[in-house]
## 1
Amino acid sequence: MTSTPGDNRIVVPGAIADRADDPAAAAVAGPVADTVVAAQPGPFSLPPGKVALLLIDMQRDFLLPGGFGETLGNDVGQLAAVVPPLQRVLAAARAAGVMIIHTREGHLADLSDLPEAKHRRGAPSLRIGDPGPYGRILIRGEYGHDIVDDLAPVDGEIVLDKPGKGAFYNTGLDDILRAAGITQLVVTGVTTEVCVHTTVREANDRGYECLVLSDCVGSYFPEFQRVGLAMISAQGGIFGWVADSGALLEVLGEPAVIAG
Ligand code: TIU
């Protein structure tokens, strides 16, 4: 895994760079037959080779006691239910050859990419950069900043570090997706109303179509989960589409749509 200071992109060896340079490898990425997922407000299309799975910030700092999420006063247990369905989706996406991108919210050790306004925000028991039970809170390279073991990236998957809530702000995500010809994003991760929403709104403005998996996104607040999802698909799909993981697995699991 390589990381360049100032460049928030971390590319796992064998990931998009290899595929983009190798038309044969790119050609087998993703479903081979155009297919659709039953979603709100209507069917969501999965054109062959144009789909990426986004796992947003499934980091120990958000999911485990003692991390950033808990220092903000949240009940981190609310997010645990996301992991099992997301493991199934991740396995199916791997089997189907879909591009997989994991993001991590966090900052450089010297905090030079942390706006003072974000540092000051709220009244957490520990602020970003303070020492916590899993290392310095939300700092790159620390144990707490990394992805939970159950969803650990494997070779060939992209791990994208982001300093903000949205996955496009100050990252190479747009370039990565455009280079690979991706137009459809299957969006998962935490938290629904913060980093998932910001990313989906940013993606929508950039012309991507987003399918948010309702049981694979999580919030510390049940009411935000419900309303956050409703906001996405309201008004004819103002930001995107919503379905549960079962609807995606129904089509992703079919031999006809597995890459080959
Ligand atoms: N606090 C909260 O709900 N979320 C975040 O700070 N970041 C993400 O959502 N990843």
## 2
Amino acid sequence: MNCGKHACCMEDDSGSNSREILFMQPVFKQSVWGGSRLSEEWGYETPSSHTGECWAVSAHPHGDCIVDGGLFNKKHLSELWKNAPELFGNAHGDRFPLLVKIIDAESDLSIQVHPDDKYAAENEDGSLGKTECWYVLDVSEGAELIIGHNAGSRAELADMIKNGQWEKLLRHVPVGKGDFIQINPGTVHAIKGGIEVLETQQNSDITYRVYDYGRLSDGAPRSLQLEKSLDVITVPAVNADEIVLRAEKIAKSSEKNKLNLLISCDYYRVWRLETDGYAELEQVYPFLIMSVIDGEGFINDISIKKGDHFILPNGFGNVRLKGRMKIIASSINEK
Ligand code: ZN
């Protein structure tokens, strides 16, 4: 049997890889702030020139990816999580725990904050909270993120929001290509225009909008969730230096052809891997998600390139990567 596109069904000559690579077919989301880079620079077939998000590895009901080729061709990731739990090391949880997406912001996203698991379970119908992190893929000159705020107390925060003192309240943080940022629940944040990131997050889309620059969408302002935002925003905010890992620092502490850990938190571990010729590693995690963000090459003799996203299932074993590629990988953090 051969799936055609990826030849993932080819027998492995080493005989050690009994499981197939699960290539994902992304789901695209259009938005007012989205751009055209997902089609122009990534080669995806996007629905419009305002495509803001590529949900690359997702089992969320609002964007459930299907497998592209192989034994599980056309199966939804959510189905596999339910019906073939051995692919994911029988990891616990009632839903696939992670969501990986590319976000292309042509203009500013709204200022927002996410709840943690406890608050979301109590107030959002049993949903998960949202911890997320961003690997910055590209920026236009002078690009900034909003991370955190300057209020000293909850009362001051409420006051500044009520009086619309956004310039005073919000922290603008300049960012560059290759920076990495962890956004814990309670952190006020926004991606601004000109920035493209690869986001790894908990499988949730619970977002509270704090401020939308007074913009109109279809003639009306988008709704804000101020009360819930005030409940969950962390005061005082964590220093941006503590959550932004700069590209230079990552480069200094990284080794080529190895998984280099960017973050380990309760929900996920994320690594950066830069292959230069040849890399070999063992898939020892419950499952390992990989997104090729630059270059092209081969994984165990199957050709891969920028824009491919796939999951190496549990027990995959030996992984051989050839070529010059940059890859962001992630898995859950087993407790
Ligand atoms: Zn967010």
